[in-house]
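lol so apparently i was supposed to do this last week
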Amino acid sequence: MRTLLANGPNLSQLGTRDPGVYGTATLADIERAVGDVVGDVDAFQSEYEGALVERLHAARSDGTSAVILNPGALTHYSYVLRDAVEMLDVPVVEVHLSQVHAREPFRHHSVISAVVTATISGVGPYGYHLAALAALQLAGEQQ
Ligand code: DQA
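anyway here it is w/ DQA bound
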């Protein structure tokens, strides 16, 4: 069971980025917490849409059994990322730290949600822990 944890633009700044909205955990804290649940985690973060797309392409053939993905603001408009997610055959859990539906209107819609297995939003950093549990369960069911 190998889990890809992929985070998009600006999530590298967790810890100091708007802690009232995103909490105080750093991305390293989150990567460790996910690893504690799933064991084998491959953590990837990029500020670039194309780099995320390339990493998802690689996940189609590198033994990845589940993906946990927080696309950041790409969530709301990236059809490129959506198409890459749609190509995956393994369970994908979309995570948002904040409750996107209670924020600005442009955050209410995710172009990614229609092609993922599950979405977790509004639980803060602990949402990644829940996503890791879900990834384990969903990957187990798919075997
Ligand atoms: C986010 C929500 C997005 O709207 C925002 O652009 C982010 C983080 C979240 O985790 O709550 O970068 O995906």
